[in-house]
Write a structure and sequence with these properties.
Layout: E1 23-26, E2 29-32, E3 40-42, H1 45-48, H2 56-60, E4 67-70, E5 80-83, E6 97-100, E7 103-105, E8 116-122, H3 125-128, E9 139-144, E10 150-165, H4 174-187, H5 219-223, E11 227-240, E12 245-259, E13 266-280, E14 283-297, H6 303-309, H7 339-345, E15 346-366, E16 369-388, E17 403-426, E18 429-452, E19 470-494, E20 498-509, E21 518-529, H8 534-539, E22 543-557, E23 573-582, E24 587-596, E25 605-618, E26 623-641, E27 654-676, E28 679-689, E29 691-696, E30 704-705, E31 711-713, E32 721-724, E33 727-730, H9 734-739, E34 757-759, E35 774-777, E36 783-793, E37 796-806, E38 809-812, H10 813-819, E39 871-873, E40 876-887, H11 890-893, E41 901-909, E42 913-915, E43 934-935, E44 942-952
Parallel strand pairs: 6-9, 38-43
Antiparallel strand pairs: 1-2, 3-8, 4-5, 6-7, 8-9, 10-11, 10-44, 11-12, 12-13, 13-14, 14-15, 15-16, 16-17, 17-18, 18-19, 19-20, 20-21, 21-22, 22-25, 23-24, 25-26, 26-27, 27-28, 27-29, 28-36, 30-31, 31-32, 32-35, 33-34, 36-37, 37-40, 38-39, 40-41, 40-42, 41-44
């Protein structure tokens, strides 16, 4: 701006939308973003923190390409994170490594999201190979905030709000339920007034019935509540700057509390962070430490199923039952557990304390040669307790014995790294190289003790182990795991045009035998900044950055499931104190028994990644584009093997290196940011595709079955594909039943009637059974998208964030229990069953017991378990976050001494969801590694509305 003879010039600075000039941490080196030749993505932390979340990984969802985040609404729940698909068969080690200020960890729940300064995701082998065995599934590098030179500053950020379930089922009330129940019993040939085992047991309206119109329980209303969330952060930071003497410090504290949307679950986190640094000449010292205390109350049972299926004619509380909860009776049958009593009679609590962080010391022998020592540790102690009161929660079940089980333990992770870094520019050449050696150790110890037979005194239980009338289980475990590594990393560029990066690591793991202990992993990437070529600059000046890059390399993985953290799979497990009766005198002899066979030949799992990408910046980087296409192949995957029990293998998992998996996909990140005087606006769009395929398994023709036997994994298919009997409509007449025949003329469902479900006889054998199951859909989404829109005008700012997933299926067990009629459950009022007057083609007639057994053949059942009738489209689009803020004008805040800025804001999270899925929530974590699409009592994501304030001094 020209002075023009003026003595006073007012200049306002606006945010710079450029991103390519950033310095990012890739492995152990820092690089200019514009010269990175690997596949990395950086999170806009300021924008992500506008979402009120408990963990940092929740803020990642939908914001970075190649990163799939699947969470639930449980208080304090950490979501499942997969980078570029699932790359292992071992049921463990499928998540990324988190590196927080040099500390390696799998724990992200304890980290305060407000402490994060930067977050970068490393996705290809070129960027992760330097982490060796821990980089196989991607790396999330996090740097926490440090104090800055200048006057000390105080920052406060706090919000509070309410949470609720965003969707509920429309269920029948007591009168409507009784009407449908009568029809269901009569259709099954049963007398609803009969007190027999398979009857409605008189719970009907009309003469002779025992239906009580005064009991009409809305179980969802009783079970769900308005949850509460609050988060308060206070930090104090500062520092001094000098050419040879500098200091920095930051102290921050947080209190986070989330009360669940159902009665019982609760989560609290207290955290205290101290980061400080000191520079004296060529010496630099930095420490980053966080102390965290967590307390949580967990959810019990499968209440999101029970709350739907339990009959409305049963009261929540019944003083006639031990414990005081309604459970049904011989004249009012139900198979459901009282969902409220399940939370109140059993209290499962967790209490965790964690001290984690690192201390690093650097000494620069020359300006270009630096030695660094990094010592990191993560110490964790926990005290968990399950306190069970006596009572009945389910009809015809035994009275629960009151008990207390306590779990105490600790684990300790230690990391020591020595590195030597050479970083120098020699004319047109820049070399940044590093070599290092590290040692890691992990050890854990735990004990469990229990007592039984507690009785309440004055209506109160005194749950202490010393007060137990009967001593229960007492046991404990100790184990350790160590690793030694040698690694190197180097980057090179010529005139900021031609880029090269190489890295490698040699890891030795105690999880393998000496012959298989060591693994070597390496990778390389190249890049070409075409925009730096003279011929390009002169012809297309509006393109300020155009870079092509490619990479290839390998990582290892030694993480497997199993007893003692999978640390001793190469050894047989022998159980002590095993009693056996021998001799004619029936003597009891104490001995030992082998419980698990060893897996002596297991070795490193390897993941090879090919990546090709393009980065583009236009109009001074107001418009940016980044794309990648990758192929990730897991070789020698540590896969579980089925072994017969009589061989000496009782329940533990035997592993073998024989499975191969491939993930391939396309990633895109597109952004546009503009400043127009007082008006700023921007948009960021991400897209991720994933195709997952198992390419080999230990045994030819082997099948890995998922939980509930609903999914399978085999060669040529993705992990956890649904394997179900096809639903083929509803029989509309007896003639259709009679004419539904196999090729040899056999009537396929001879015991069915008009209004019953027709299943497809896929193998044409004239019968319906599990042999008719076929692959019916994937549980893994193949397309993920995110869209963040932001705008600001003067003091106002608005941020709107959408994310979506598509291409996956969900097995809806709640719908199966409501509409399968297998037991005396409640009914979905929105579904009209088949009748002569309502010849539905999708919903069968009401039929008590679903027809199984009563009609003589399970094939006639309207509640057949493993069928596509319960399989639904899991696609959704969700307004994940919307925030409106207002920053008070400086003319107002300047009137308060030392007050810097004040911003107030309101936020809505999970405001609405567009989906065809009929369950509580289409975003589910599933029941296990191979059954991620099975919705069995998944805690739904919650809708929240919060208000907050940010104050800086």
């Amino acid at each position: 701006m020209a002075v023009g003879g003026r003595t006073t010039i007012n200049i306002g600075l606006t945010p710079d939308a450029k991103a390519l000039s950033e310095v990012v941490v890739v492995g152990y080196l820092t690089e200019d973003r514009q010269n990175v030749s690997s596949s990395v993505s950086s999170l806009d932390v300021k924008e992500a923190n506008k979402a009120p979340v408990a963990t940092a990984t929740q803020a990642l969802q939908g914001r970075l390409p190649g990163v799939q985040v699947t969470g639930n609404g449980g208080p304090g729940a950490a979501p499942i994170v997969n980078i570029r698909g699932i790359g292992t068969l071992g049921n463990a080690g499928s998540g990324p490594l988190y590196v927080i200020d040099g500390l390696w960890t799998d724990n992200i729940r304890d980290l305060n999201p407000n402490d994060i300064e930067s977050l970068t995701v490393l996705k290809d082998a070129s960027s992760t190979a330097v982490y060796g065995s821990r980089g196989a599934n991607g790396v999330v590098q996090i740097t926490t905030k440090k104090g800055k030179a200048g006057a000390p500053s105080i920052n406060f950020n706090g919000y509070t709000g309410v949470e609720s379930v965003y969707k509920q089922y429309n269920l029948t009330n007591a009168s409507e339920w009784a009407d449908r129940a009568v029809i269901a019993y009569r259709n099954a040939g049963l007398d609803p007034l009969n007190n027999g085992q398979n009857s409605l047991a008189g719970a009907v309206k009309g003469p002779g019935g025992a239906f009580n119109p005064d009991i009409d329980t809305d179980w969802q209303k009783e079970f769900f509540q308005t949850g509460r969330v609050e988060d308060y952060n206070l930090s104090f930071s500062g520092g001094s700057a000098g050419e040879k003497n500098a200091t920095n410090f930051l102290i921050s504290g947080e209190y986070f509390h989330q009360e669940g949307i159902v009665k019982g679950p609760d989560f609290q986190r207290y955290s205290l962070r101290l980061n400080s640094g000191l520079t004296r000449g060529r010496f630099r010292l930095q420490e980053n430490v966080q102390l965290t205390h967590l307390s949580a109350t967990l959810l019990n049972g499968n209440p999101f199923i029970d709350v739907l299926t339990i009959i409305p004619s049963i009261p929540v509380y019944d003083p006639a039952n031990e414990g005081g909860y309604g459970t049904g009776s011989p004249i009012l049958n139900t198979f459901a557990t009282n969902p409220i009593g399940a939370q109140e009679l059993l209290q499962r609590t967790q209490s965790d304390n964690r001290l984690a962080g690192n201390i690093s010391a650097e000494y620069s022998f020359f300006d270009f040669l630096t030695y660094r020592l990094n010592v990191a540790g993560d110490g964790h102690t926990y005290s968990n307790a399950d306190a069970q009161k006596s009572g009945i929660l389910r009809q015809n079940t035994r009275i629960n014995t009151s008990s207390l089980n306590e779990f105490l333990g600790y684990d300790l992770f230690l990391l020591g790294e020595n590195t030597l870094n050479f970083n120098k520019r020699l004319g047109d050449h820049t070399v940044n190289a590093l070599v290092g050696v590290s040692e890691q150790s992990f050890r854990a110890h735990n004990i469990q003790a229990g007592g039984q037979g507690y009785t309440p005194a004055g209506g109160q239980y005194f749950f202490e182990l010393s007060a137990a009338p009967k001593v229960g289980v007492v046991q404990g475990t100790s184990y350790k795991y160590t690793k030694r590594s040698f690694f190197a990393q180097a980057t090179y560029d010529y005139k900021n045009r031609y880029l090269l990066s190489v890295s490698g690591r040699r890891d030795g793991s105690s999880r393998f035998t000496e012959d298989n202990r060591w693994g070597n992993f390496g990778a390389a990437s190249i890049g070409w900044r075409i925009s730096e070529e003279d011929f390009f600059k002169n012809s297309l000046p509006q393109v300020n950055n155009l870079k092509l890059r490619a990479s290839y390399g390998a990582n290892g993985n030694d993480a497997v499931a199993g007893a003692a953290g999978g640390s001793y799979l190469t050894q047989a497990i022998v159980g002590q104190n095993v009693n056996y009766v021998i001799g004619t005198d029936q003597r009891i002899v104490n001995g030992s028994s082998q419980l698990a066979l060893p897996s002596p030949d297991i070795r490193w799992e390897e993941r090879y990644t090919k990546d090709a990408g393009l980065d583009l910046g236009l109009f001074d980087d107001r418009l940016t584009l980044s794309t990648d296409y990758y192929i990730s192949e897991t070789r020698n995957a540590l896969a579980p093997v089925q072994v017969l029990t009589y061989l000496g293998h009782f329940g533990a998992t035997l592993f073998q290196n024989a499975g191969d998996i491939e993930n391939r996909g396309f990633e895109l990140a597109l952004g546009y940011h503009e400043n127009k005087n007082a008006f700023t606006y921007g948009a960021d769009f991400t897209l991720t595709t994933v195709k997952n395929e198992v390419t080999s398994l230990p045994v030819v023709g082997q099948v890995l079955e998922g939980g509930e036997l609903l999914t399978r994994s085999e060669v040529g298919r993705s992990l956890g594909e649904f394997y179900l009997i096809p639903f083929d409509g509803i029989f509309q007449s007896p003639d259709e039943v009679a004419n539904y025949k196999s090729s040899n003329g056999t009537v396929i469902q001879p015991f069915a009637s008009a209004g019953d479900v027709r299943y497809r006889d896929t193998n044409d054998d004239g019968r319906i059974n599990n042999s008719d199951a076929v692959y019916s859909g994937k549980s893994i989404p193949n397309l993920l998208m995110g869209l963040n829109l932001n705008a600001g005008y003067k003091g106002f700012d608005l941020s709107v964030f959408f994310n979506s997933a598509s291409g996956n299926k969900i097995y809806n067990q709640a719908r199966r229990d409501l509409e399968g009629y297998a037991g005396p459950n409640n009914y979905n009022a929105d579904v009209e069953p088949w009748s002569v007057e309502n010849p539905s083609s999708s919903t069968p007639r009401l039929l008590q017991g679903g027809g199984a057994g009563n009609l003589g053949l399970a094939a006639a059942s309207n509640s057949l378990f493993n069928t596509t009738r319960w399989l639904e489209d899991g696609s959704y689009i969700r307004l994940r976050n919307i925030q409106l803020g207002y920053t008070l004008p400086q003319s107002l805040t300047s009137k308060v001494p030392s007050l810097g800025s004040v911003r107030v804001y309101v936020t809505g999270r999970n405001v609405f969801t567009i989906t065809d899925y009929t369950g509580f929530d289409p975003e589910i974590t599933g029941t296990g590694f191979y059954s991620r699409g099975v919705d069995i009592s998944s805690y739904p994501n919650v809708r929240s509305f919060t208000g907050g304030i940010q104050v800086n001094f």
